[in-house]
Amino acid sequence: MKIIDKIALILVIIGAINWGLVGVFDFNLVEMIFGDMTIIARIVYALVGISGLWAIKLLFDHD
User: Fold this and answer.
1) What's the CA gap between 13 and 57, in Å, rounded?
2) What angle do CA 19, 45, 9 make, to 5 degrees?
3) What is the pTM of this model?
């Protein structure tokens, strides 16, 4: 697995954990750490979203 694939997978996992916390406990870890929609929080959300799109590619990789 390439390093970019591992980074994308880690970010997808972080995003999934955050959504799980939001769904179960109404607690947004990203907002707690970086603030409510600050530029850093928006960057984190964007990176997680891009990583989710990248992870689609991982489904079809047969290396």
Assistant:
1) 16
2) 70
3) 0.85
Q: Which structure tokens are listed for 54? A: 């990248």
Domain of residue 46 covers 3-60
- Sorted by sequence, the CB contacts under 8 Å of residue 58 that are 6+ apart come out as 5, 8, 9
Helix (H) / strand (E) containing 12: helix 3-25
Query: What digits encode the pLDDT tens for the residues 25-53?
Result: 999 999 999 999 999 999 999 999 999 99
Domain count, the chain: 1
Q: Are 8 and 58 in contact (CB under 8 A)?
A: yes
The DSSP-derived string for 30-60 is HHHHH-TT-HHHHHHHHHHHHHHHHHHHHHH
Give the separation between CA 1 and CA 27, rounded to whole angstroms.
Answer: 32
